[in-house]
């Protein structure tokens, strides 16, 4: 048995972008010992999912306004809190 886990992101309605975030394979017969995910599999799948989601959020929300080539933001220091990082980007 093989499961493919796919994350579909739709920033623009009608334009979905898909990413394969993982795969789980189970060979042989199902038993109580191999039903569901192991802790390691669950952590790996969640980490992959989190990486895709955070990357998409940063690209959509912070990069367009934080790194302009010119304009009112180019001369100012910007502070951008995110789930994992608080930092400054300056030009």
Counting helices, strands and paired strands, the structural category is alpha+beta
- Please state the average pLDDT score: 76
Rounded radius of gyration (Å): 19 Å
Largest sheet: 2 strands, antiparallel
Tell me the helix content. Answer: 25-40%
Please indicate the count of domains.
Answer: 1
Strand order of the largest sheet: 1-2
Order of helices and strands: EEHHEE
* Number of helices in the DSSP assignment: 2
Low-confidence stretches: 72-77
Strand content: 25-35%
Shape: elongated
Count all strands and give the number.
4
Please tell me about this protein's structure.
The chain has 91 residues and is an alpha+beta fold. The chain has one domain. The protein has helices spanning 39-61, 63-66; strands spanning 2-9, 17-25, 78-81, 86-89.
Briefly, what is this?
The protein is 30% helix and 27% strand.
Characteristic key phrases:
single chain; 91 residues; alpha+beta; two-stranded antiparallel ribbon; 2 helices; 4 strands; 30% helix; elongated
Write the layout of secondary structure elements.
Layout: E1 2-9, E2 17-25, H1 39-61, H2 63-66, E3 78-81, E4 86-89
């Amino acid at each position: 048995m093989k499961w493919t886990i796919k994350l579909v992101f739709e920033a623009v309605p009608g334009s979905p972008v898909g990413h394969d975030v993982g795969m789980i394979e189970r060979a042989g017969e199902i038993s109580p010992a191999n039903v569901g995910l192991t802790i390691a599999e669950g952590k790996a799948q969640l980490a992959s999912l989190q990486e895709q989601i955070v990357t998409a959020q940063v690209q959509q929300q912070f990069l367009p306004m934080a790194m302009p080539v010119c304009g009112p933001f180019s001369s100012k220091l910007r502070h951008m809190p995110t789930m994992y990082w608080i930092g400054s980007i300056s030009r």
